[in-house]
Amino acid sequence: MKMTFRWFGSTDDSVTLEQIRQIPGMTGIVGALFDVPVGEVWPIEKIAKLKKEVEDAGLELEIIESVNIHDDIKIGLPTRDKYIENYSQTIRNLAQYGIKVICYNFMPVFDWTRTNLAKELADKSTVLSYEQGVVDKIDPTAMLETFKSSANGFSLPGWEPERMATLKDLFSKYEGLTEDTLFDNLKYFLEGVIPTCIECDVKLAIHPDDPPWPIFGLPRIVKNEADLERIVGLVDSPYNGLTLCSGCLGANPSNDIPKLIRRFGAMGRIHFAHVRNIYIHENGDFDESSHLSCDGSLDLFEIMKAYHDIGFTGYIRPDHGRMIWGEKARPGYGLYDRALGVTYLNGLWEAIGKMAQVK
Ligand SMILES: [Mn+2]
């Protein structure tokens, strides 16, 4: 595996490349261009600048999270062909600079949803949390306001103000869209871009829905094993792959994460691993916990063992962390707790590897 760390760029991240470089075992950055509007081609010059910046810091830039999909593609509007062509051109541009994997999601309107970005735990650390009762009652616009006021001044990927300004309009465009139509639209998108992926040797890796069930009446199609199976079958190519996010899929206790890793890993379809833990309450609400198995509901040892057993050589990142030690950062994306997560995952990996040799 290649240990990586998500970074939002020199102007919009409290964490520096130098700090990331000093985390033991760190090899690369999970980067993106956050100032290119969704649907537009990522310009060569901006990609080149990011690549140089990361490499000058002694790190690699081989994976992008995310190149977002324009809503017209997800809705299936006639204008989608133009956006699919733009996406293909972005793939070509990224390939020129050594990008190997592109993470994306296919969630209507919202990339991810939480009801509290700073829930205080018993140890006074704060975490992102989700309460279904709040989502059931709240208007999405009101949720956006809550997010803005508790994001410590940082932008939140997927909740960009420009896009959210048209929230009502977006919701009306998605009206009547079913899971089946969304699958059809994903297939249309994949059939459009996978030939370019093959030509450029860039693998796509779809991120699961967060949380993995429908919210605000919008359909979701990356929720469970059956969905993942359907997705990898839409275009039968290793370039049509997955980002296996343990914290997202794991929010539904019937998703057996180690089983999913073994199954789709054996098919060579997992290109990116997001590994984090969550604590699921009795009513199904959840908090993002520390990575340690005993702090959450997921067994991180079993998850890392599954990756080890499939001989995983792809990219991995600690995903989110708690806010600890007085750090002020983008919620979920501070330095300290994610660095602790990396060290824990590396520790599990080393132990599992050595134990396997003893046998
Ligand atoms: Mn994730």
TrEMBL record:
Record keyword Manganese present: yes
Enzyme's top EC category: lyase
Keyword Manganese in record: yes
InterPro entries the record matches: Man_deHydtase, Xyl_isomerase-like_sf
Record-listed E.C. numbers: 4.2.1.8
GO biological processes: D-glucuronate catabolic process
Keywords annotated in UniProt: Iron, Lyase, Manganese
Superkingdom of origin: Bacteria
Reaction(s) this enzyme catalyzes, per UniProt: D-mannonate = 2-dehydro-3-deoxy-D-gluconate + H2O
Cofactor: Fe(2+); Mn(2+)
Pfam family, one: UxuA
An annotated Gene Ontology molecular function: manganese ion binding
Pathway(s) annotated for this protein in UniProt: Carbohydrate metabolism; pentose and glucuronate interconversion
Function: Catalyzes the dehydration of D-mannonate.
Family per similarity comment: Belongs to the mannonate dehydratase family.
Protein name, entry field: Mannonate dehydratase
Originating species: Paenibacillus monticola
Organism taxonomic ancestry: Bacteria, Bacillati, Bacillota, Bacilli, Bacillales
Gene name in the database record: uxuA
